[in-house]
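_Per-residue structure_
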Amino acid sequence: MDVNFRKIDIDQYDEDVLLDSELYETDPRDPAQALNDVKQKAAAVRGSLSKGDIVGALNLVLEDAPYGTAVEEAKNLNLQTLVSILNSTKATEIPGVVKALSTDAQDTLMKYLYKGMALPGWGDVSGSVLLGWHEKLTEAAGTGCIVRAMTDRRLV
């Protein structure tokens, strides 16, 4: 029995096929510029954390986050920076910090929490820290935050 028919990409013959590039606009920055922006943010975040400004540090990381397939290195560095903020925050401070974030920042934070959960054993990612943040974020932002994070095609 010939099974070569299973290796044929039938989507190449379909003119109505939906491509990932059509679902969202890619990050307008080139990879080098996105990486440079993230490195500058990481330095600014370290300064904010040394002053004890957790909300300011989170806002820096979450605003204009890199997305798309061409900026993987920048996305990983941004995740490392975010994880350092999450790990340095006391559990009692989390609800106040989450409530101080804008709706867009909360949605982006939820995307990063899910990305961190998808990468077990990666860097300083601790499942208990991520789940604690997830719980407090869901209490503050509601389940709509989860839905928006899951359905947005701009992956961080």
